[in-house]
Write a structure and sequence with these properties.
The protein has about 110 residues and is of the alpha/beta class. It has one helix and eight strands, in the order αββββββββ. The strands form two sheets. The chain has a four-stranded mixed beta sheet with strand order 2-1-4-6, with no helix packed on it. The longest helix has 19 residues, at about 1-20. About 15% of the residues are buried.
Length: about 110
């Protein structure tokens, strides 16, 4: 019984270390844009090639989307939740909201 308790304690320690350590945050977004108050905030960001941007939708139930002007990416029409896109090319990418054409944003990708 004692060996079993020691084994359980050792497994718990190993599992605890692997769950908490070693994550470099590689999947974490490089930038977050809030979709609220009928705008993207911030409206313009600069990131490095290969990084991910996350748009978080929270505009009191108003539906919005994120649509690249060149058709490279497009979110669903959302009232809550989030949308992410990883930028694999350098350049300047402009986007808009389909139902609210005055909502504009820009992602500048360097590198």
């Amino acid at each position: 019984m004692r060996k079993l308790l020691v084994l359980i304690a050792a497994l718990s320690a190993v599992l605890g270390l692997s769950a908490c350590g070693g994550d470099s945050g590689g999947d974490a977004p490089a930038a977050t844009i809030r979709v609220q108050n009928m705008s993207y905030s911030p409206a313009s960001i600069t990131i490095e090639k290969g990084q991910t941007v996350e748009w978080i939708f929270d505009d009191s139930g108003l539906p919005h989307d994120v649509v690249d002007d060149d058709g490279k990416y497009r979110s669903d029409l959302l009232t809550t939740g989030s949308f992410t896109h990883t930028f694999t090319e350098s350049g300047t990418f402009t986007y808009h909201c389909t139902p609210h054409t005055m909502m504009l944003g820009t992602v500048v990708v360097e590198g």
